[in-house]
From TrEMBL:
This is TTC13 protein. The keyword Electron transport does not apply. The keyword Lipid biosynthesis does not apply. Pfam families: TPR_1 (PF00515), TPR_16 (PF13432), TPR_8 (PF13181). TPR repeats lie at residues 79-112, 147-180, 181-214. Keywords: TPR repeat.
């Protein structure tokens, strides 16, 4: 045994080295050496283990730091030690274990706003937003001027889709510190996704005054300018992000990866501001490899890529249009569009209402209605530089055009127009429902439905491959209520031990008895906390052709029936047309033929085509209900993907659409495609402020 004085001298040296600077690796190593000597001499002092953990964790040696803290806790548990260990678990994304540590810490000392904030964040990252909000509020009770808690509270409300509450929380954070860059950035992002671009811009500019190299604010500033048609400013900001090359070995930021695509696309849009929309097509104009890399979010490394020409000075930026400067019938058109767009809002946690997208998709719905009516009356439409009778893809292209311009950040591209080799490999639309401990809030409603479906498939599988064990499997399945309950069942069969995939089937209407591949559900993992539960659709050329044949046949049928309907308004005909529209869109949803935005695009086509047939959707997309027995549709695409067939989908959809006869005043609205014939006129109408709409009673509603 060395003398205690000596030990404390070594300990003092260790701490001194530690304090001198963890930045200096040599000091850190010396400190670790001295502290390890102390531990070998006197292994029962918790504070030495804690000291060593504090040096280990900044060095990235998290698991060693964790075991030191665990030793310290065994020797003498304290609120501080639990909080310290919880923070390390949190950094390691083990949110469930971190939550337990923060809980223990708070039991030992309840007045700890930081531990309370972290406890809230462990909920937030697992998709448990209501619980997170409780904890953040609790932290604010303990510390009224806690900026980070207001910021996190704002984020949680934003994720819930509650714009007003989120705004209030961000405001409170900024009242405490008007220069809080993170809050400015988050508030700007939220305003952008709410469709308030000029408000968003103010936040990004403020953020850049304080932090000129903030990539997120710089990228979002460029994006907001471009979306509003201010291309000169927009491209200037984008170029600044491009100059921010990552250092060798450093991971490029998402903004850096996206900005080159956005800049090229912005130049393309600017060059086409005044070209009639009927004379060109984005999908055929943009180079194949460019589209492929953009949609897959790959680094911009495209061989022999020819840049889009720079901005031409004779094409001026888009100017702000006053709502009053539009003719009264156009004002009416805009107000009706706003109303129709708001009918598409999902009343589900996780969807923030975006008034810009509402207006764009409302105008798309009206334009689809007008184009379908023309087609049924045998008139031609002009699209892609040709005058012809409208095909089903043209009908969807109307909605694609509006969805694209509402948010130029997202590549809304037809997957079958991608280069052949990109398709032959298959293009995946992928949604994670659970990744590790992170649950996707938006689709929570559907877990039971998908689970039910998986259970059926497992029984079918074992019935065919394992008839002897069927009873055992059936009994085990009766105990399955959550996704993780499936893990033990995977062990029943060596093939599924590490995970399994289940494919949904989509029955053909054209060839009775034939089935197509719908989407794939994958579950992998061996214990709670590292499960991956995801769904994806694989767009291959062959699958696309099968679906196209189905949609072609339905569209042909729809056009024929629509022509009869226009001549005689018999009720039976309206019904048949309505079912054809819903069936056609059922196949579109299961095909998922676009890189983004399939859902809202399909929904505006449903609404517009139904309106052409004289029916108006008067029910909003319903809030998810707790009971799984009442089939409800809170996410139209998921409902179509989990419906057993097109008839079932039509039935579900009609049950909540609450179709009414269309008000005759729709007939008198001006033509959308003639009123907004260019990108410039489309951007102008999306920018204009229509708060007067609420004051004027909309005749149609």
């Amino acid at each position: 045994q060395e003398e205690p004085e000596l030990v404390s001298a070594i300990y003092g040296r260790g701490i001194a080295y530690g304090k001198k600077g963890l930045h200096d690796m040599k000091n850190a190593e010396l400190a670790l050496f001295e502290l390890s000597r102390v531990i070998s001499l006197e292994p029962d002092h918790p504070e030495v283990f804690e000291q060593r953990a504090e040096i280990l964790s900044p060095l990235g040696r998290i698991s060693e730091a964790l075991s030191d803290l665990t030793k310290a806790i065994q020797l003498q548990p304290s609120a501080r030690l639990y909080r310290h260990r919880g923070t390390l678990y949190f950094i390691s994304e083990d949110y469930a274990t971190a939550h337990e540590d923060f809980q223990h810490s708070l039991e030992l000392n309840k007045n700890q706003p930081i531990a309370m904030l972290y406890k809230g964040l462990t909920f937030f990252h697992r998709g448990l937003l209501k619980e997170a909000i409780e904890s953040f509020k609790e932290a604010l009770k303990q510390k009224a001027d806690f900026i980070d808690a207001y910021k996190s509270l704002g984020q949680a409300y934003r994720e819930l889709g509650n714009f007003d509450a989120a705004t209030e929380s961000f405001q409170k954070a900024l009242l405490l510190n008007q220069n809080h860059v993170q809050t400015l950035q988050l508030k700007g992002m939220m305003l952008y996704h709410h469709g308030s671009l000029d408000e968003a811009l103010k936040n990004f500019k403020r953020c850049l005054q304080l932090e000129p190299y903030n990539e997120v604010c710089q990228y979002m500033k460029g994006l907001s300018h471009v979306a509003m048609g201010q291309f000169y400013e927009g491209i200037k900001a984008q170029t600044k992000v491009m100059l921010n090359d990552p250092l060798p070995g450093q991971k490029a930021s998402p903004e850096y990866l996206k900005v080159k695509y956005l800049r090229e696309y912005s130049r393309y849009l600017h060059a086409h501001l005044d070209t009639p929309l009927t004379e060109y097509n984005v999908d055929t104009d943009l180079p194949g490899n460019f589209k492929d890399h953009w949609a897959k979010n790959l680094p911009f490394l495209i061989e022999n890529y020819e840049e889009q020409p720079g901005l031409q000075p004779h094409i001026k930026d888009v100017l702000f249009q006053n709502f009053e400067s539009y003719r009264p019938d156009v004002q009416e058109l805009i107000c009706v569009a706003d109303h129709l767009g708001s009918m598409m809002q999902y009343e589900t946690p996780g969807f923030l209402p975006n008034k810009r997208i509402h207006r764009a998709m409302g105008l798309a719905t009206l334009e689809v209605m007008q184009a379908v009516q023309r087609t049924w009356a045998n008139s031609k439409v002009r699209m892609n530089g040709k005058t012809r009778l409208m095909q089903w893809r043209d009908m969807f292209d109307i909605a694609v055009k509006w969805r694209r311009i509402a948010d130029p950040d997202q590549p809304v591209l037809w997957l079958d127009q991608m280069p052949a080799r990109s398709l032959s490999r298959g293009f995946n639309n992928h949604i994670n429902l659970i990744r590790g401990q992170v649950i996707n809030m938006r689709y929570l409603e559907y877990f039971e439905k998908i689970l039910h479906f998986i259970k059926d498939r497992i029984l079918v599988y074992h019935g065919a491959n394992n008839p002897k064990g069927l009873l055992e499997v059936r009994e085990a399945l009766e105990k399955v209520h959550k996704v993780e309950d499936l893990l033990p069942i995977m062990k029943f069969n060596s093939k599924t031990r590490d995970g399994f995939t289940v494919n949904t089937k989509v029955p053909s209407l054209k060839d009775q008895g034939k089935e197509y591949d719908g989407f794939t559900i994958t579950i992998t993992g061996d214990k709670v906390g590292n499960i991956l539960f995801s769904v994806e659709t694989q767009t291959t050329e062959e699958r696309t052709q099968l679906y196209h044949a189905e949609i072609d046949a339905l569209y042909k049928d729809l056009t024929a029936k629509g022509k009869i309907l226009i001549l005689s308004a018999e009720l039976g005909e309206v019904d048949a047309v309505c079912n054809l529209i819903l069936s056609l869109v059922y196949y579109f949803y299961n095909l998922m033929p676009l890189s983004r935005g399939s859902s809202v695009i399909a929904y505006s086509v449903i609404m517009g085509a139904l309106m052409a047939s004289g029916k108006e959707v008067s029910g909003k997309i319903p809030k998810g209900k707790a009971s799984i027995r009442i089939h409800r549709l809170s996410l139209v695409d998921f409902e179509a993907m989990t419906a057993p067939g097109s008839e079932a989908f039509s039935k579900i959809a009609r049950s909540w659409m609450n179709l009414k006869s269309l008000s005759p005043s729709y007939k008198s609205l001006p033509s959308v495609s003639e009123t907004f014939p260019t990108l410039r006129t489309m951007i102008e109408v999306l920018n204009t402020d229509s708060s007067h709409c609420l004051k004027k009673t909309i005749v149609i509603v």
